[in-house]
């Protein structure tokens, strides 16, 4: 009895192994379909995205393109589980044809060979001129003859501020970070805080470093370099550490009720955030409608005109897709046609990465919540001032977690922001080595 | 006789008044320990009920009052309006998710209970080679968290192209090692061999004996297994997260999680997540109240023998 049972187990295991092996070979052969030629006949594509309302946009495409039908799949946002799913699906050989990927996650997929290089697809290289330069750098990794995704939206940063409170208290709107610190003291004297330093939004901090001209990662084609602790990053960290130490900024966790409430009650006066943040303030602080305005980000040196970026995503084609040609065609339409960009802006406040998108009529209007200021003009200018040199690393989720832990500790008085960056850098280098990704030290 | 029996009552009431002035008297039932026990219970009750109270209160507020009013007390009562908005949002996709959850959890728990009951009964009442080995393997299964199985299940289901289908979430729900364990213990204790013998003598087949005689005796255990499994499937989140990509197949937990992860982009969603979470716990509460009677006796039954 025992022997037959063992035999049965062995047989089962063998069968499973054979099935697994069989499938993994079929998955790897389909990789070669990346020469990007149009298919004969009708093509069905699958597209995973977590943008609310994107199915309406895709309906418009499906209506106009009976030969290239796209089915939308959805899930939580990227770091909320969809990226993990993408990796599982790539492993299992059933990834969708197209997927939404934020810029900071693209290098991870690139390192794992999950993305199709679309450079040989019709019209992709010609589209470069149509996208804001730095967004194109994000999807090409500044490699020659390479495009791993089509830029979708972006988050150029500027400063939201309470125009009424600054005016009533006779405080000048800061245009440099030095003025910002002075204004912070004046605002604190009224009992409020000039802004909230988001202890867990490493993305926001990265945007500030980006603006200051820092870069955290580099890739020379073979090796990665990690530099979270260059002079620029430390300068930015020390600046905010000083404001925290002097109790000139509040340190509430972002996107919480308390955080909303601080803005709603006038306890916080400014927010250095991205274009898509306009809606966060409007819905989180409804009682302050009409009192807000937007100014360019404060600069490190008077007269400079630099901006950072916070967020933004792209549409990538996964290895294993049998129809990269049609997929690229759809991705280009999705991210550069004014029809699609208008719909995406209305349903999910996406701020386009396409140059033509920055001039959409809907982005030229005055916004009631911001005293009818045409706030997106400020962001359009900011978008042109974002450096194209900033590169994300291949293990950003881990980097965010490690730096975020350090930031939370620093905010509660243990250690400093700069120390958090040092810890984050060491942990990131370890993580890269652990995944056998070559690192230059 | 009467002075002896009556004496404790006044003593007790005296103690109660004494407790107010904090002078403990009799050693038998120290008010101090009583008060501390009550305090601990009260704290825990609050600990469990306050979040639900908060959820209920938050669900009745309009989005503008949500951040600006006392989180534990009502502002303008907008519950009905909020529910209407939620149900109308995106063509009622929330109702679809609730139905999906009901189907996954209801049908899944029913079949899982049947299978677990049959297996447990067979393990308890029939002697066959490898019985203990089988039971020990099932016991080992109790120790493996469902989360750890999700990824291997995904890879296996991928091989047979069943990911992103109803079956991807439904089939794994049918397995309940804990149910097998519980029903085996319960069947051994509550289904007498003599009764099975009697049924056989009366000419009933094994299957008929099981369904007409044994199931009735095992009913409290089966209800308990059903309840446990229903709650486990209803709350299961990781498996659907990995398996499903089609919104129309989502259970309510995954749907609300997906919305919650989009709050940064669409802040209105926060209100929908709140009211949705409130509605999504109602079926569980109703089920607990309905089945409470059975499953209480079910939990106790195995323990004394």
Strand fraction of chain B equals under 5%
Structural class of chain B: mainly alpha
The ordered string of helix (H) and strand (E) elements of chain B is HHHHHHHHHHHHHHHH
- Total discrete domains of chain A: 2
Order of strands in the sheet with the most strands of chain A?
2-1-3-10-4
Structure classification of chain A = alpha/beta
CA gyration radius of chain A, whole angstroms? 24 Å
> What's the CATH H-level superfamily name of the largest domain in chain A?
Periplasmic binding protein-like II
Organism (chain A): Cryobacterium psychrophilum
Keywords (chain A): Signal
Signal peptide (chain A): 1-21
Protein name (chain A): Extracellular solute-binding protein
Describe this structure as you would to a colleague:
Chain A is α/β, with parallel strands linked by helices. Chain A has helices spanning 2-29, 54-64, 82-92, 106-111, 133-140, 163-168, 177-189, 202-212, 231-245, 257-264, 277-284, 324-336, 338-348, 375-383, 396-411, 417-434; strands spanning 43-48, 68-73, 98-102, 149-151, 157-162, 217-219, 224-226, 270-274, 292-296, 313-317, 439-440. In chain A, helix 2 (54-64) runs antiparallel to helix 13, helix 8 (202-212) packs across helix 9 and helix 15 packs antiparallel against helix 16. Chain B has 305 residues and is mainly alpha-helical. Chain B contains 16 helices and no strands. Chain B has helices at 2-6, 8-20, 31-59, 63-68, 79-88, 93-125, 131-143, 146-159, 166-173, 177-190, 193-201, 206-217, 219-235, 238-243, 252-260, 269-304. The two termini of chain B are 38 Å apart. The relative contact order of chain B is 0.11. The chains are: A alpha/beta (441), B mainly alpha (305). The interface between A and B is large, with 42 and 35 residues.
């Amino acid at each position: 009895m025992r022997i037959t049972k063992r035999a049965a187990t062995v047989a089962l295991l063998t069968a499973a192994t054979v099935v697994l092996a069989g499938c993994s070979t079929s998955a790897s052969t389909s990789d070669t379909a990346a020469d990007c030629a149009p298919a004969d006949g009708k093509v069905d594509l699958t597209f995973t995205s977590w943008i609310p309302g994107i199915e309406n946009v895709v309906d418009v495409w499906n209506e106009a393109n009976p030969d290239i039908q796209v089915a939308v799949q959805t899930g939580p946002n990227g770091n909320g589980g969809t990226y993990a799913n993408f990796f599982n699906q790539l492993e299992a050989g059933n990834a969708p044809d197209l997927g939404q990927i934020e810029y900071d996650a693209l290098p991870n997929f690139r390192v794992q060979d999950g993305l199709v290089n679309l450079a040989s697809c019709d019209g992709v290289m010609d589209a470069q001129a149509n996208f804001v330069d730095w967004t194109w750098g994000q999807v090409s990794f500044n490699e020659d003859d390479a495009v791993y995704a089509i830029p979708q939206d972006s988050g150029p940063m500027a400063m939201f501020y309470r125009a009424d409170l600054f005016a009533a208290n006779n405080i000048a709107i800061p245009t440099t970070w030095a003025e910002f610190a002075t204004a912070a003291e004046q605002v604190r004297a009224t009992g409020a805080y000039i802004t909230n330093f988001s202890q867990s939004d490493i993305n926001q901090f990265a945007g500030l470093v980006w603006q200051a001209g820092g870069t955290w990662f580099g890739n020379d084609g073979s090796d990665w370099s990690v530099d979270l602790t260059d002079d620029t990053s430390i300068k930015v960290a020390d600046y905010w550490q000083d404001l925290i130490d002097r109790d000139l900024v509040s340190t509430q966790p972002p996107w919480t009720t308390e955080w909303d409430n601080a803005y709603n009650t006038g306890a916080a006066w400014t927010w250095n955030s991205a274009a898509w943040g306009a809606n966060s303030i409007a819905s989180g602080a409804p009682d302050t409608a009409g009192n807000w305005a937007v100014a360019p980000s404060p600069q490190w040196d008077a007269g400079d005109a630099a901006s950072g970026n916070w967020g933004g995503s792209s549409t990538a084609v996964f290895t294993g897709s049998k129809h990269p040609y049609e997929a690229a065609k759809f991705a280009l339409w999705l991210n550069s046609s004014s029809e699609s960009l208008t719909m995406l802006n209305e349903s999910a406040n996406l701020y386009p990465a396409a140059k033509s998108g920055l001039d959409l009529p809907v982005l030229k209007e005055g916004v009631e919540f911001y005293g009818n200021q045409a706030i997106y003009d400020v962001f359009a200018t900011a978008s042109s001032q974002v450096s194209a040199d900033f590169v994300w690393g291949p293990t950003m989720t881990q980097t965010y977690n490690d730096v975020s832990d350090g930031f939370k500790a620093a905010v509660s008085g243990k250690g400093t922001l700069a120390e958090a960056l040092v810890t984050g850098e060491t942990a990131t280098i370890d993580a890269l080595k652990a995944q056998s990704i070559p690192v230059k030290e | 006789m009467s002075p002896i029996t009556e004496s404790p009552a006044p003593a007790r009431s005296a103690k109660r008044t004494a407790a107010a002035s904090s002078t403990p008297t009799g050693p038998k039932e120290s008010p101090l320990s009583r008060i501390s026990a009550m305090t601990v219970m009260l704290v825990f009750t609050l600990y469990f009920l306050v979040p639900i109270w908060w959820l209920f209160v938050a669900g009745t507020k309009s989005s503008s009052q949500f951040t600006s009013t006392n989180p534990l007390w009502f502002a303008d009562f907008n519950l009905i309006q909020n529910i209407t908005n939620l149900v109308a949002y995106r063509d009622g996709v929330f109702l679809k998710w609730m139905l999906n959850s009901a189907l996954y959890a209801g049908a899944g728990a029913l079949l899982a209970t049947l299978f677990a009951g049959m297996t447990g009964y067979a393990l308890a009442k029939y002697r066959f080679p490898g019985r203990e080995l089988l039971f020990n393997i099932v016991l080992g299964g109790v120790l493996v968290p469902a989360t750890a199985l999700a990824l291997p299940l995904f890879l296996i289901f991928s091989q047979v192209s069943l990911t992103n289908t109803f079956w991807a979430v439904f089939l794994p729900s049918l397995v309940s090692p804990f149910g097998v364990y519980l029903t085996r213990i319960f069947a051994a204790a509550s289904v007498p061999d003599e009764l099975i013998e009697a049924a056989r003598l009366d000419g009933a087949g094994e299957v008929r004996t099981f369904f007409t005689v044994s199931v009735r005796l095992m009913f409290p255990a089966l209800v308990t297994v059903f309840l446990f499994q229903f709650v486990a499937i209803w709350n299961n989140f990781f498996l659907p997260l990995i398996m499903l990509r089609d919104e129309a197949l989502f259970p309510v937990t995954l749907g609300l999680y997906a919305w919650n992860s989009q709050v940064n982009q669409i802040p209105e969603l926060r209100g929908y997540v709140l009211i949705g979470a409130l509605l999504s716990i109602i079926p569980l509460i109703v089920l607990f109240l309905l089945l409470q009677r059975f499953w209480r006796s079910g939990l106790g039954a195995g323990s004394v023998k």
